[in-house]
Amino acid sequence: MRLLKQTKSAAFLCLSCIILLLSSCLTSAKLDKFVASQYNNEIPKPSKKKKADIEIASPLKGDNTQISTTTHKTDKFLPLLVYWKYNHRQSCLLNPSIAVTNFSNAVNNLATKTLTDKLNGRKLQLTVEQAPAAFSVVVKENMVWLVYAFAWEKVYIEPDKKDLVVSYKLVGADGDKSGTITVKNKDKNMGLRYFQSWKSATSEYLSEYNANFTTMTKDFVTQLTSEL
Questions:
Q1: Burial grade of 1 (CB within 10 A; 0-12, 13-18, 19 or more)
Q2: Residue 155: helix, strand or coil by DSSP?
Q3: 125-139, pLDDT tens digit by residue?
Q4: pLDDT for the residue numbered 3
Q5: Measured in whole angstroms, how far is the alpha carbon of residue 174 from the centre of its chain?
Q6: First CA to last CA across the chain, in angstroms?
Q7: How far is CA 182 from CA 72, 129, 147, 157, 163, in A?
Q8: E strands, 17-101, where?
C-alpha cells in the first residue's frame, strides 16, 4: 500500500512538472501579445478602394480596439494510478472587426464587372451577420507510469467552425430585393509539426485564416452575382 502511494505521488509530481513547464511556455497573455504583433498591434484598416454603390456594415463590430482575448480552459483532467490525462486549451477570440474588415476589403477587390453591371446604379447593402473569428491552441497530455514515467502530448490549432453569413439588400427605384447567403467555413485543424513552436504554428494559422477568408468572400460574391 505504501508503495502504491509513493508511485501515485511520484506520478503526480512528474505530471505536475510537465504541466508547469508547458504552461510557462504558452499563457493567455503571451498568445494575445503574439497575435497582436501579427496584426502590427492594430485592427486592419479598410481599403481605400471602395465601390460607391456597395455599403458594408455589421452588428459584430464594436468600439473595442483589443486585437484578441484569450482564455484558458481545462477540458479534462483524469488522474488514475498508472495513467494520467490532461487536456487544456487556450481559446483566442479575435476582434470581430478583423473579420468584417477582411470581408469588406475582399468584396471591394473582388467585385467583378458582372456584379456592378447587375447593380445598374442601384445601392447594394451588405450586412455581415456571422463570421469565423476565433481559434484554440489545444494541448492533450498523456502519461503512463509503470516503472518509469512515459509522457507524450498532442498539440494542434482548432479553428472556429462558424460559417460566413451575410445578408444583402438591393435598393432601387423599381423595388428592393433581399436575401441571405451562407458560405461554409473551410478551415481545418492544423497540427504542429515536429519541433515547430506555437508561435510559428499560430503565425501560419493566421496567414491561412486570412487567405481562407478571401476565398469565402470570393464564393460569396459568386453566389450573390447569380442571385441578383
A1: exposed
A2: strand
A3: 999 999 999 999 988
A4: 43
A5: 41
A6: 76
A7: 31, 10, 55, 24, 7
A8: 54-57, 68-79, 83-94
**pLDDT tens profile 19-74:** 444 444 778 899 999 999 999 999 888 877 777 788 999 998 877 889 999 998 87
Q: How far apart are CA 37 and CA 189, in angstroms?
A: 22
Give me the residue spans of the domains in the chain: 28-76+92-136+156-227
- What pTM did the predictor assign? 0.79
pLDDT at 24: 46
Q: Are strands 54-57 and 123-130 parallel, antiparallel or unpaired?
A: parallel
All three cell numbers of 211, joined, read: 487567405
How many residues does this entry show for the chain?
Answer: 228
DSSP 8-state secondary structure symbol assigned to residue 8: H
Q: From the CB of residue 224, how many other CB atoms can be counted at a distance below 10 Å?
A: 20
Q: Identity (one letter) of the amino acid at 8?
A: K
Asked whether the predicted pLDDT for residue 175 surpasses 80, the reply is no
Helix 198-227 / helix 28-38 crossing angle, nearest 10 deg: 60
Question: Do 115 and 218 contact (CB within 8 A), yes or no?
Answer: no
